[in-house]
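Fill-in record for Sesquiterpene cyclase.
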Amino acid sequence: MPFPFMSNHHASEAAAGLDAWLRSCGLTEEVGVAAMIAFTRPAELASYNSPTVELDVLQIVANQIAYQFVFDDRAEEIGRRSPDRLLPMLCESIGILRDGAVPRTPLGVALADLHRQVQERCTPAQAARWAWKSREYVHGLLYESVAQAQPLPPRIGLSTSIRSLTAGIEPFYPLAEAAQPCELAPEELYHPTMQRLSRLSADAAVWIPDLFSAVKEQRAAGMINLALAHQRAHQCSLPVAVLLAIRQINSTIKEFERLYEEIKPELSPAGIGYVKGMVGWIRGCYYWARTVPRYVDTALTPALT
């Protein structure tokens, strides 16, 4: 990991604000949510990946991480039974993000309030990008459910494509932009190298926790995990597959560093800050995944042969 550990000094305030927000949305009344939040520590992850932002942005990041953890776990639980059971849940989310529809569930209430927070803190263009990337994340969960329901597991390319969507990391990049002193110019934001940096950082960030969750995913018959995809592709043991995944992650981070150095002289201060927001997710996911209780028993759980 080439990026040193950093943590936001507003972390405890964000954690308190998150608890209050989850209660106000009714999510902590849902079965298992409070325990899951204690095991995933969303505010801690937000503090690690957004170490320099002010409290207002950090709070939105923490709230959104918590929401996505709840949403993802619920989608996985429902989707394992049948992909079509996911449709009401996913359609409610798309309706809120695209049309401003009235929410019908506590998860919908949380998403609608998140959308409001983003619209109040971001520019209209940034909020629109946030909503677009959030819709991609919602669609990704349906793709994952369809893949899990198939008799044969997906090939590694398809698996990583789905993982890129279910990661839900790119919706946070408009918040990283909003933390800058000004909006990025279109020619900077949509520069091909900047777009590639976005893809590389999101992949590296989400693949890192895959290393720590691989044993649990294997035990639960999960498929959309980088290490497990390598195990299937190479018909090797899980420890060997994890090493192959680490090699792919390292290669991705090295390409990110190289491209950033190439484009950095052309970037505005806001553009540099935006890329540092991407760096934050790579670094943050690494240090969070190493210590979070969600993965604490990974080293104690034997892999299947």
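KEY FINDING: The chain has a mean pLDDT of 93.
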